[in-house]
Amino acid sequence: MTVYNFCAGPAMLPKEVMQKVQSELLDWQNTGCSVMEMSHRSPEFIEVYEQAVAGLKSLMKIPDDYSVLFMQGGGRGQFSSVPLNLKKNGKAHYVTTGLWSEDAVVEGNKFLTVEEQDCRVVVNGKTSILPLAEWNVSEESDFIHYCLNETVDGIEIFESANQLLVTRDVPRVIDMSSNILSRVIDVTDYDLIYAGAQKNIGPSGMAIVIINNALLNRSSESVPTFLNYAITKAKDSMYNTPPTFAIYLSKLVFDWLQKNGGVEAIEQKNRDKAAILYQAIDNSELYENRVAEQNRSLMNVTFYLKDESLNQCFIDEAKANGIVAIEGHRSVGGMRASIYNAMPIEGVKALVEFMKTFELKHK
Ligand code: PMP
């Protein structure tokens, strides 16, 4: 039986990439060693690192006045790094749209005063996000922080930061942990983009930071060294021994994306996959999605069974049919299908088929 893994993260990675990793795990490029066993300072590994940086720059069209950093501590590490490095006057604007942006507020408050704006609007049981032009960000803010895709809630923001009315003097920081590389964005609309790697990039534990170089001079000496952006940049992400295997795997994922047409091509596939699933939910009498159409996530499709007593049965039967990790996050319940870049359309079709069969059976 083919198994499709809908886990929100760590999530499935492209099969082709995993097969390549497997084939060269014990003897990498005829060195007689695994890439995991090589010095991060060896010319061989430096080449991998440089190719990974170049790969991401090319995929996301990152201009030269931005840097790519590989950092440790995943997405949450950045909840601390961002305020620690970017703090100036001591106040920052944080927009909340779901669980992850709320958690960023809790961490941010440890280092500065967070001015929180909850931008969720609920009408007829459907949540949408206030248009960016209605976010009231003070010009005095050290930065604005928000989450482009709320992994738990299945809420995504598609508007560009250029819709914000605040000037570019307030740096724009976004968490793209669960939608980086899933669709085209203009990097220059933002000043700092970060993402935990374990959804669209590679193994967990690592974060990718894309930072406007103009912000690097904000990192003061008091910032813990391994979280310091300026030092990370100066040391080519090797102040401490970097997660070499994760960087190697990321490079392979970037190669895979490039080979398959880059971000433009994967965006079309992602839109097609999400459309199939949302349509199946909207056309059914058993399932419902609670996000307004303009904010429905392309990556994390959340849905509820109108008869919640069927939840466990749905999860069990799904698993028996090769649909695994479909349960929603414990904080919101229901179901969640995470359909990141690596999920083939066949997986989404298999899920939809299962959902239809399940609905008929339990009518
Ligand atoms: N932000 C978002 C949007 C996430 O989805 C996650 C993890 N699911 C995090 C932050 C936290 O990442 P980590 O667990 O790597 O710290």
Automatic annotation (TrEMBL):
<dbReference type="GO" id="GO:0030170">
    <property type="term" value="F:pyridoxal phosphate binding"/>
</dbReference>
<dbReference type="GO" id="GO:0004648">
    <property type="term" value="F:O-phospho-L-serine:2-oxoglutarate aminotransferase activity"/>
</dbReference>
<dbReference type="InterPro" id="IPR015422">
    <property type="entry name" value="PyrdxlP-dep_Trfase_small"/>
</dbReference>
<feature type="modified residue" description="N6-(pyridoxal phosphate)lysine">
    <location>
        <position position="199"/>
    </location>
</feature>
<dbReference type="GO" id="GO:0006564">
    <property type="term" value="P:L-serine biosynthetic process"/>
</dbReference>
<dbReference type="InterPro" id="IPR015424">
    <property type="entry name" value="PyrdxlP-dep_Trfase"/>
</dbReference>
<feature type="binding site">
    <location>
        <position position="198"/>
    </location>
    <ligand>
        <name>pyridoxal 5'-phosphate</name>
    </ligand>
</feature>
<keyword id="KW-0664">Pyridoxine biosynthesis</keyword>
<keyword id="KW-0718">Serine biosynthesis</keyword>
<feature type="binding site">
    <location>
        <begin position="240"/>
        <end position="241"/>
    </location>
    <ligand>
        <name>pyridoxal 5'-phosphate</name>
    </ligand>
</feature>
<keyword id="KW-0963">Cytoplasm</keyword>
<feature type="binding site">
    <location>
        <position position="151"/>
    </location>
    <ligand>
        <name>pyridoxal 5'-phosphate</name>
    </ligand>
</feature>
<comment type="pathway">
    <text>Cofactor biosynthesis; pyridoxine 5'-phosphate biosynthesis; pyridoxine 5'-phosphate from D-erythrose 4-phosphate: step 3/5.</text>
</comment>
<dbReference type="GO" id="GO:0005737">
    <property type="term" value="C:cytoplasm"/>
</dbReference>
<feature type="binding site">
    <location>
        <position position="41"/>
    </location>
    <ligand>
        <name>L-glutamate</name>
    </ligand>
</feature>
<comment type="pathway">
    <text>Amino-acid biosynthesis; L-serine biosynthesis; L-serine from 3-phospho-D-glycerate: step 2/3.</text>
</comment>
<keyword id="KW-0808">Transferase</keyword>
<dbReference type="GO" id="GO:0008615">
    <property type="term" value="P:pyridoxine biosynthetic process"/>
</dbReference>
<comment type="similarity">
    <text>Belongs to the class-V pyridoxal-phosphate-dependent aminotransferase family. SerC subfamily.</text>
</comment>
<dbReference type="InterPro" id="IPR015421">
    <property type="entry name" value="PyrdxlP-dep_Trfase_major"/>
</dbReference>
<feature type="binding site">
    <location>
        <position position="100"/>
    </location>
    <ligand>
        <name>pyridoxal 5'-phosphate</name>
    </ligand>
</feature>
<comment type="subunit">
    <text>Homodimer.</text>
</comment>
<comment type="function">
    <text>Catalyzes the reversible conversion of 3-phosphohydroxypyruvate to phosphoserine and of 3-hydroxy-2-oxo-4-phosphonooxybutanoate to phosphohydroxythreonine.</text>
</comment>
<dbReference type="InterPro" id="IPR020578">
    <property type="entry name" value="Aminotrans_V_PyrdxlP_BS"/>
</dbReference>
<feature type="domain" description="Aminotransferase class V">
    <location>
        <begin position="3"/>
        <end position="351"/>
    </location>
</feature>
<keyword id="KW-0028">Amino-acid biosynthesis</keyword>
<feature type="binding site">
    <location>
        <begin position="75"/>
        <end position="76"/>
    </location>
    <ligand>
        <name>pyridoxal 5'-phosphate</name>
    </ligand>
</feature>
<feature type="binding site">
    <location>
        <position position="175"/>
    </location>
    <ligand>
        <name>pyridoxal 5'-phosphate</name>
    </ligand>
</feature>
<protein>
    <recommendedName>
        <fullName>Phosphoserine aminotransferase</fullName>
        <ecNumber>2.6.1.52</ecNumber>
    </recommendedName>
</protein>
<keyword id="KW-0663">Pyridoxal phosphate</keyword>
<dbReference type="Pfam" id="PF00266">
    <property type="entry name" value="Aminotran_5"/>
</dbReference>
<dbReference type="InterPro" id="IPR022278">
    <property type="entry name" value="Pser_aminoTfrase"/>
</dbReference>
<keyword id="KW-0032">Aminotransferase</keyword>
<dbReference type="InterPro" id="IPR000192">
    <property type="entry name" value="Aminotrans_V_dom"/>
</dbReference>
